[in-house]
Design a protein that fits this description.
Blueprint: E1 3-4, E2 8-13, H1 17-27, E3 33-36, H2 53-58, E4 71-74, E5 82-83, H3 112-115, H4 117-125, H5 143-157, H6 183-194, E6 200-201, E7 211-212, E8 218-219, H7 245-251, E9 255-258, E10 261-269, E11 272-280, E12 286-296, H8 300-310, E13 327-330, E14 338-341, E15 357-360, E16 379-384, H9 405-414, E17 418-425, E18 434-442, E19 448-453, H10 458-477, E20 482-485, E21 504-506, E22 530-531, H11 547-567
Parallel strand pairs: 1-12, 2-3, 2-12, 3-9, 4-19, 12-22
Antiparallel strand pairs: 4-5, 6-15, 7-8, 10-11, 11-12, 13-21, 14-17, 14-20, 15-16, 16-17, 18-19
Helix pairs in contact: 1-7, 1-11, 5-11
């Protein structure tokens, strides 16, 4: 029998960016917060001398243990889903700080178009522009309403960046200057400008200079070591929950973190949550943590799983399009790219940082006319100087043998002579791309696994081809001798091929309970003292990385939670 613990004001299910921001904001106001974290405690000391590509990048040291909990996957409803046994297309973080520990630090605000995508699309192109089966909907909040929360996240993280020169793009003043210009970013910018585009340095959570944020947290500048994505930062230069918001919460004395603890269910009765049921994975003991407010703040996938296993909210039915939990799962298109090989140029590709790069937004959102195009939205086109580690980076021009003398010679020659121009595209929701509970497979605790049903649509394939063509154009202008272009003839979505960890949707926000799980404060329509911030709240995915929008929504949720604790009831 589960042991019932003393009641707290707030319990968070997960202690990453969302749980950390909410803990920091509410403990400063005097509220007691308990954070339940499935993984272990983490600190910058864990990463001293930890530049081990095999351990972290290839063997996924910081990711969720798939032998205990995974997902099942299929391309369509006619097929049987099978368990995902090896990390591939996306990576779910584990431990205090969550995926906010192993991210690259590329930090963008979603566009005004994103928050009102249905209204703005219909206004400009008419309803017939939206293809059958595409479930576009507005978010129930506008960019202007979100702007103050974006500002709070930027100031907390100390984002380094510069204004986007594209006409019509939001003008953002970042707390710190952009990261350094390199020969790679300079070459890209010059080529893009010659083609009439508007390049700029991407906003970075890897600090360009020493910085102290409004909470008094001081961090040092990035050292450009090249070990960001899939790694923790031993300098603390990369913004993460462990070096920004969690120290603030802990300093108040009002915050407690319980590690190695997996939440199985949110307990509820008569439309109100009473707390959570969790398991201490070291002992197998079960506990009930009562709370006035429950915050489901885990990774996007786990948020959906917890709600479905808790029987909170109406599960989505893809056949009728009714129901809401599991609806609008969206990934990210990332195959419309171009890799260039340079016979006459050599670069230092082993130094770098996770968000050191430049990009254009000329083909993102609705900045360009889609009237004669057979897709909606778009994507960013960017060149990054991440620091190419030796195991995963061994590119040779098309037509090179995959072994033997010629392969070795070209591998050596092109090791510092190849660049990739990546195009990260939006993923828009469709009626038959969704998440539910698997009827066959269970996790280590006996709960059903999540089942993902997802595949690329014509929308995705055409967008990726368009971005691939544009990427090739810029790469040729940069002077590449050989160009390997992506985006053509996109096959089925391959869950084994890593693209991004930008999973979104499934517990979406909106303007009504008929079409969404959450209101604009990320409060559940069906259970007023449950809030579910995170990328699971996105009704679609943009051409940008999600973290800045996740963080801004977490600040808004924290504001809403305080209002709820004072007045109760629905906040909208």
């Amino acid at each position: 029998m589960a042991k019932t613990l003393p009641k707290t004001d707030i319990v968070t299910v997960g202690v990453g960016w969302v749980g950390g921001i909410i803990a920091a904001e509410l403990t400063k106001k005097g509220y007691k917060v308990v954070g339940i974290e499935r993984g272990k405690e983490r600190s910058t000391e864990d990463y001293f001398m930890a530049h081990d590509e095999l351990r972290y990048a290839e063997r996924k040291e910081m990711m969720q243990d798939m032998s205990k909990e995974t997902i099942t996957f299929r391309h369509d409803m006619k097929k049987r889903a099978l368990p995902y046994r090896e990390w591939g297309s996306f990576l779910i973080g584990d431990g205090v700080g969550g995926s906010g520990m192993h991210w690259n630090g590329q930090t963008f605000r979603f566009l005004p178009y994103d928050f009102e995508i249905y209204s703005k699309t219909v206004e400009r192109y008419g309803k017939d522009k939206i293809p059958a089966g595409m479930q576009l909907q507005d978010w129930g909040i506008t960019y202007d309403e979100m702007a103050p929360y974006f500002d709070k996240f930027d100031a907390m993280a100390g984002l380094s960046g510069e204004a986007n020169p594209l006409p019509g793009a939001p003008q953002i003043k970042y707390p710190t200057p952009p990261m350094i210009e390199t020969p790679v970013t300079k070459l890209f910018k010059e080529a893009a400008k010659k083609l009439g585009y508007h390049p700029y340095h991407m906003p970075s959570a890897n600090l360009s200079e020493n910085y102290t944020n409004p909470d008094g947290i001081s961090r040092g500048a990035c050292q450009y070591c090249g070990f960001c994505e899939r790694f923790g930062c031993e300098y603390g230069a990369k913004a993460s929950p462990v070096v920004t918001v969690l120290p603030v919460a802990k300093k108040t004395g009002n915050f407690e973190v319980r590690t190695h603890s997996v939440v199985r269910k949110v307990l509820h009765k008569n439309g109100r949550a009473t707390g959570v049921l969790y398991v201490d994975t070291r002992t197998g003991e079960e506990f009930i943590q009562p709370a006035e407010v429950v915050i489901v703040s885990a990774y996007q996938m786990n948020n959906i799983k917890i709600l479905l296993n808790s029987q909170l909210g109406k599960p989505y039915d893809p056949k009728t399009g009714t129901g809401v939990v599991g609806k609008n799962y969206a990934y990210q298109t990332y195959l419309g790219r171009a890799r260039g090989f340079f016979d006459d140029k050599e670069f230092n590709l082993y130094g770098g940082a996770g968000a050191l790069g430049a990009q254009i937004d000329d083909f993102n959102g609705d900045f360009f006319d889609h009237t004669n195009l057979d897709f909606l939205h778009g994507g960013t086109m960017h060149i990054t100087h991440l620091g190419d580690r030796p195991i995963a980076n061994n590119w040779v021009p098309p037509g090179t043998p995959t072994w033997g003398k010629e392969f070795k010679e070209k591998s050596t020659f092109y090791a510092n002579r190849n660049l990739i121009l990546a195009a990260q595209g939006a993923s828009l929701p469709f009626q038959d791309n969704y998440i539910d509970l698997d009827p066959t497979y269970k996790d280590a605790f006996g709960d059903p696994l999540l089942r993902m049903t997802f595949n690329w649509k014509d929308q995705d394939r055409k967008l990726q081809k368009f971005l691939g063509d544009k990427s090739e154009e810029v790469m040729k202008e940069m002077g590449a001798t050989h160009v390997l272009k992506g985006g053509d003839d996109i096959k089925d979505y391959d869950i084994r091929n890593y693209q991004s960890t930008h999973n979104t949707g499934g517990v979406i926000m909106g303007a009504s309970p008929e079409t969404s799980v959450l209101n604009s404060y990320l409060q559940m329509w069906d259970c007023e003292n449950v809030f579910v911030p995170g990328a699971s709240a996105f009704p679609h995915n943009s051409g940008y990385n999600p973290t800045n929008t996740v963080g801004a929504l977490a600040y808004r949720a924290a504001e809403g939670i305080e209002k709820y604790l004072k007045q109760g009831g629905s906040l909208v």
